[in-house]
């Protein structure tokens, strides 16, 4: 009979912030939604940062190396991963990661400059605290639900494990890092011959809250350890308590200080006159879907997309032929248009959610050379492509 999968031996190397920050941001946002932490962000906003996008056309975009610069492109969902990556870069460099304002000339905003200075001060003050707390960790453990939540809520104060590997090195006073986001301090270690003996000696409510009897408790542990492994190694009851100083408390204070504008900045946005700072970017899959909507849905045989029709207006405006050549069948034009918009979605380094008459709030992206595109705020309507900014652009028909 195959043995059940045992919990891995606790990690003994000092955890690094780059390996923990995603889970830390995720846990902080979830705790904010549950009313356990104050991030100053609305529940809907936090939920949208956590929302996934199974239809993401660029699924590898968020698998970026946190030791390098934050990637370009429209942030993939879940957005908290890009937020975590930018936070790590900001803490490592001692300054907030910002977008490329120089692509479009903007009037100097003293209020915005003051905000950026405050955000930088926040990063400099709070970032090193996270690093210092991580140096105090002696062991890393992973705990499954519902046990992790019970430990977090203080309902579960004893963690039972088979006495194997590095578990035997854990001692009173050690700091444990659970699931890369919560710290617990070991108060005592009790040794037993079996889980049954442990559950008899310790309070069942402290070891397995909600479990009604010892037999049921033993069966829970049997999901993780075979009888043979238990008999050969014995069992440890790790008595713990939660210190008041927690990584997620400092992460919550960082998010509280950043507020919507700072979070948006970390997601790669710039802020200009008319920026809607509480808005988040639409999922890339929604942007691409609206781009591919048929331009003439009621015309039989017409397959030209909204995106290809919009591109037709721009192909002759750039003297450098940036937009390429648009010719051939509808399907060929559609393919060229998809290549163009995919390049913009993946390479953009200037993102904004701002008011543009007569459309209202739009989502706008631009690459370093200034070319770009616009959608409605929710991404369900593709508005059109954009030429690089130029003085008197309208009067010149944006030809350059």
TrEMBL record:
Coiled coil segments of this chain: none
Residues that span the membrane, as ranges: none
Pfam families from the UniProt entry: ASCH (PF04266)
Residue ranges of every copy of the ASCH domain listed in the record: 141-244
SUPFAM superfamilies, sorted: PUA domain-like (SSF88697)
Superkingdom of this protein's organism: Eukaryota
PANTHER family: RNA-BINDING ASCH DOMAIN PROTEIN
Record protein name field: RNA-binding ASCH domain protein
Organism annotation: Forsythia ovata
């Amino acid at each position: 009979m195959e043995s059940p999968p045992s919990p891995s031996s606790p990690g003994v190397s000092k955890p690094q912030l780059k390996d923990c920050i995603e889970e830390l941001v995720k846990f902080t946002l979830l705790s904010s939604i549950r009313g356990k932490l104050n991030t100053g962000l609305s529940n809907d906003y936090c939920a949208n940062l956590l929302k996934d996008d199974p239809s993401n056309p660029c699924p590898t975009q968020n698998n970026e190396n946190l030791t390098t610069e934050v990637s370009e492109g429209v942030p993939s969902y879940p957005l908290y991963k890009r937020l975590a990556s930018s936070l790590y870069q900001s803490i490592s460099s001692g300054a907030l990661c910002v977008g490329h304002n120089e692509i479009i000339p903007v009037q100097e905003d003293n209020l915005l400059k003051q905000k950026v200075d405050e955000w930088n001060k926040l990063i400099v003050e709070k970032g090193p605290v996270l690093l210092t707390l991580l140096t105090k960790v002696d062991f890393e453990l992973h705990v499954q639900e519902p046990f992790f939540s019970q430990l977090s809520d203080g309902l579960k104060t004893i963690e039972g494990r088979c006495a194997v590997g590095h578990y035997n090195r854990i001692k009173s006073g050690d700091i444990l890092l659970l699931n890369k986001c919560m710290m617990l301090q070991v108060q005592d270690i009790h040794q037993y011959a079996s889980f049954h003996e442990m559950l008899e000696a310790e309070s069942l409510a402290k070891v397995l809250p909600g479990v009604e009897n010892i037999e049921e408790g033993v069966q829970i542990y049997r999901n993780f350890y075979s009888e043979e492994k238990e008999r050969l190694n014995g069992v440890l009851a790790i008595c713990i308590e939660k210190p008041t100083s927690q990584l997620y408390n400092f992460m919550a204070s960082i998010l509280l200080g950043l507020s919507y504008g700072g979070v948006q900045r970390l997601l790669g946005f710039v802020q200009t006159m008319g920026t809607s700072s509480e808005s988040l970017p639409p999922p890339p899959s929604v942007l691409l879907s609206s781009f591919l909507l048929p331009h003439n849905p009621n015309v039989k045989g017409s397959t030209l997309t909204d995106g290809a029709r919009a591109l037709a207006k721009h192909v002759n405006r750039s003297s450098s032929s940036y937009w390429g050549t648009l010719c051939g069948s509808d399907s060929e034009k559609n393919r060229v248009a998809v290549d163009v918009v995919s390049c913009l979605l993946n390479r953009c380094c200037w993102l904004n959610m701002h008011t543009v008459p007569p459309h209202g709030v739009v989502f706008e992206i631009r690459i370093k050379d200034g070319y770009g595109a616009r959608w409605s705020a929710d991404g369900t309507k593709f508005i059109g492509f954009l030429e690089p900014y130029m003085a008197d652009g309208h009067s010149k028909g944006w030809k350059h």
